[in-house]
Design a protein that fits this description.
The structure is a homodimer of 162-residue chains. Chain A is of the alpha+beta class. Helices cover 33% and strands 33% of the residues of chain A. Chain A is elongated, with a radius of gyration of 17 Å. The complex binds threonine (THR) (2 copies). One threonine sits between chains A (22, 24-29, 48, 51, 60) and B (121, 126-127).
């Protein structure tokens, strides 16, 4: 039932921000996003995949995306909050695009995610970040792969034939 | 407009699986989830927040959750695929619960995520993983915080008063 996937979307105006070595204690991500929320900066995707119990005490990493127009302010606000957040380094990567497959009841549907990953893998497209939900599976890939990714996913989910 | 959040959900039957030091090349996550999909193992949440360009060439990490009954088979299948995936270590953590706030149009709504993070931070609840989407913001926290997290979020989003 690849039919569960209704479409493929591309979000090309995003900048990937990764805060590395964040103090892995209660309150830290609140400290990252509070100034961004106050400044009305839209954050599209937030992913964190580890915590200190799995990685040791040198902090953990958090990735999120903002619109290109908000990149500089985002970096400034996070740098200003350095003491409160506690981080080692912050990276901004403009060379990303967010590719998503959209549907319903995707949670617990391992097969739907695997089709996406295999389709991109076969095209030699490296996946930089992953976030999943009931209605959407999103990955970040380099800009240069945007069109190839969309075509590969259309084909993998047999969207062209419908 | 905390009213955008309609409810808080708790998913307590989940085991957090983290594959550490995964070969950060095209096809790798496909190799992780293909055997799980074939074995009909439901995967609820998949998060990856880094890729080699931000972390160096020692691989990256991927976290996902499965039901407790599937823990042993999941570990076995991934160990069997070790050559194809290429990873350093795999960790299973049963002491987690997934807490989510549910609503609509949550993407790009930084304020809604920040309320959740601040509420948990104030309770001293450490966030182990984060995944966001248009309809749900999910975090993984230790089992012991399950009830406290739900109460704190109900209060933060003023859900009790409605
Ligand atoms: C790293 C970050 O998520 C931290 N654990 C927190 O709870 O805010
Ligand atoms: C780490 C993993 O996501 C890898 N980059 C892949 O594309 O499969």
């Amino acid at each position: 039932d690849r039919k569960k996937i209704r479409g493929v979307s591309l979000s090309a105006n995003e900048v990937k921000i990764t805060v590395l070595g964040v103090r892995d204690e209660p309150g830290t991500v609140g400290a990252i996003f509070r100034p961004l929320a106050s400044a009305d900066i839209d954050v599209s995707m937030i992913v964190q995949d580890l915590s200190r119990t799995s990685k040791g005490d040198d902090g953990t990493d958090v990735t999120f995306t903002v619109e290109q127009k908000d990149k500089d302010l985002t970096l400034k606000l996070i740098a200003d909050a350095r003491e409160e957040i506690g981080f080692r380094e912050i990276i901004a990567d403009e060379d990303v695009v967010r590719v998503s497959v959209i549907g319903m009841n995707l949670e617990k549907n391992t097969g739907m995610a695997q089709i996406m990953f295999d389709a991109l893998g076969k095209e030699g497209i490296n996946i930089q970040a992953i976030s999943t939900s009931e209605v959407k599976i999103s990955v970040l890939v380099a800009n240069e792969f945007a069109e190839r990714a969309v075509r590969a996913l259309h084909s993998a989910y047999i969207l062209d034939a419908r």
